[in-house]
Amino acid sequence: xxxxxxxxxxxxxxxxxxxKVEEAGExxxxxxxxxxxxxxxxxxxxxxxxxxxxxxxxxxxxDIVLLAEFNTRFEDMxxxxxxxxxxxxxxxDKLVTPTMLIAVSLQNFSVLHDYTxxxxxxxxALDHHFAVSPWQVSQGAWINERYSTAFITLRRVAxxxxxxxxxxxxxxxxxxxxxxxxxxxxxxIDTENRLYSAVQDCVNMLRDARVTLYTIDPAGxxxxxxxxxxxxxxxxxxxxxxxxxxxxxxxxxxxxxxxxVDMEINTAIQDGAxxxxxxxxxxxxxxxxxxxxxxxxxxxxxxxxxxxREGYYLQYGPGRVNPxxxxxxxITDLVSADTSNMVYDGVAIAPKQSATDPDSFAVHVDGHxxxxxxxxxxxxxxxxxxxxxSTFDKKDKELKRDAKVVKIGASPxxxxxxxxxxxxxxxxxxxxNPKAVRVxxxxxxxxxxxxxxxxxxLGQEATKAAPPQ
Length: 469
What we know:
By secondary structure, this protein is α+β, with helices and mostly antiparallel strands. Helices cover 22% and strands 28% of the residues. It has helices at 50-56, 77-89, 119-127, 135-139, 143-161, 189-208, 243-249, 261-273, 328-339, and strands at residues 2-4, 19-23, 26-28, 30-34, 62-68, 94-104, 109-118, 168-173, 211-216, 254-255, 277-280, 293-299, 305-307, 311-312, 349-353, 360-365, 382-392, 398-409, 424-429, 438-445, 451-457. The strands form six sheets. A six-stranded mixed β-sheet has the order 7-6-5-8-9-10, with helices on both faces. It has a four-stranded antiparallel β-sheet with strand order 3-2-12-14. A four-stranded antiparallel β-sheet has the order 18-17-20-21, with helices on one face. A hairpin with a 2-residue loop joins strand 2 and strand 3 (26-28). It is globular, with a radius of gyration of 23 Å.
């Protein structure tokens, strides 16, 4: 939660007793409470990667700055980069909050820089990024693809960062959904239902990954508000389902209609550095997955405004994996992890190359991220993961991808039920290819849906991610 006074300034001196929580109109008991600035990395730390973050500051808050270029006019993109750079240049050389920079177009999802506190490195990555003109925006084309890109981007970021327990502040700079019309061809009730389901799924995934979304419109004050289509007075981010509702649902804000975009970026980042955290156990026992559970947080002091997530949907576990006919969503998630240069830390893995056979590897999976079934009369205790191994050439072109479902039984002396902590070492072998310079390993735990990735430069050992705390 972020708390503001009547002038919009952040309030930092509240205590647990100042807050009251309701869910669906019913008072809740606050179990745990953390004040603003909790878990901020100390000055002695220097974080320059996801591995550093998980090892040195596993609960630290982070900023994920995302340049959304697939629905944003080409002439607005330079101003987005200029505004971000203008904000960064005012910051100290060592950023307080570890920051990741991502750029997304219809064709590419690229991590321009992994988590770092080095301001100069973020600026350098920004300077070396050149956007491609999204001609689909000006022609009003590829509506479905642009909707899909927005949803897939939110999903893949949430899946990648869920292994880090700290709070994540995602600053989305650019338009969200493309404008579309409910009437006419191409917008059926089935399409609307699928859109609603995708929104619900995104809200849940962002919640579970502790991601708060801030949306910033880089267009500033528009002379012609209709250039993006739709009604800009209702939703400047486009689309029939307003993208800004996703931000509000996750506890963030939507910022637009101002030319000082650098100050809007500052607002989002300051919110992320000055939030309160509380936990409660809902008293409502309803299991209706379609019912939105609205949350209301208030403070005793008059004149203060609390910004927090609006609520949540119940979410069931991931669907069973069908290796013969996997779902499109599962394929999308796995391919996104396999082809991305983003580190997924949902489960800690560390591949090691054989000393005698350069094409053979052992993929170590940390036991903290695994789930073991209980033994039954017909089946022994086991765990199941999906393993993808892909090779890439020096131009980062994928040469070959192999995927398989791996089912591994527990050791004979393992308890039949209850907690069981056991690491895995999964052997695998790649086809020899002299063009291959990098191997990417992706592991998805079937029981939880969590994904871990690791890259290995051939002849070198990958850095192992820290296990979840």
